[in-house]
Amino acid sequence: MQLNASRIKVLQAQDDLVTDMLKSASKELLRISRDHLTYKKLLKTLIVQSLLRLKEPAVLLRCRKEDLQLVDLVLESARNEYANKARNQNNKNTLFVPIT
């Protein structure tokens, strides 16, 4: 019985930490979204990271209505950065076998 109570306390503590982190992240994101220069950089970085993680030939990008103009501004730059990074990642994975 004590073991279960102990596990429940641990799970509750973990849940509390995650909840606090989500609240903190939401507040920070709201603060950053008011600073257009920082937010613009963040959007571009997040778009590039997402494209690199997805590794899909076509992607549908969804954003908040209030971010649409900012996303339009960074989209071409994000595409170019993604293309460069994807090309570099492919080069790193190339295996050269010596001729024998």
TrEMBL record:
Keywords: Ion transport, Transport. GO terms for cellular component: proton-transporting two-sector ATPase complex, catalytic domain. The keyword Transmembrane helix does not apply. Gene3D superfamilies: ATP synthase, E subunit, C-terminal (3.30.2320.30). It comes from the Eukaryota. The keyword Metal-binding does not apply. GO terms for molecular function: proton-transporting ATPase activity, rotational mechanism. Coiled coil: none annotated. Belongs to the V-ATPase E subunit family. This is V-type proton ATPase subunit E3. It comes from Zea mays (Maize). The lineage of its organism: Eukaryota, Viridiplantae, Streptophyta, Embryophyta, Tracheophyta.
